[in-house]
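Practice problem 4.
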């Protein structure tokens, strides 16, 4: 049986920050005075902004985080929950086209 090392939330968050910077963007840490707001506000080249919640395998979204996600969907805002470095890579590949930003 193969053991898979799970990344801590702070490790996924650090990975996100470095990957976004490598793609030419910025991932700002956000500490809202109200609960449930996404961990990071990610600004990508081309004027694209995302609210990104970071979790790890086995983690769960709180009720307030679920409400925030639904509110972002209703407002047609970019919102993502990323659970691993693989999720970060996939999310970036879907949202950034090198040399031709959305």
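Answer key:
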């Amino acid at each position: 049986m193969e053991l898979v090392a799970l990344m801590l939330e702070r490790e996924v968050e650090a990975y996100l920050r470095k990957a976004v910077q490598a793609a030419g963007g910025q991932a700002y840490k956000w500490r809202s005075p109200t609960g449930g707001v996404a961990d990071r506000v990610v600004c990508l080249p081309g004027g694209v902004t995302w609210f990104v919640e970071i979790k790890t395998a086995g983690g769960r979204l709180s009720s307030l985080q679920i409400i925030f996600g639904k509110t972002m969907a209703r407002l047609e805002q970019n919102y993502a929950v990323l659970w691993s470095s693989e999720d970060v890579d996939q999310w970036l590949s879907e949202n950034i086209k090198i040399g031709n930003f959305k």
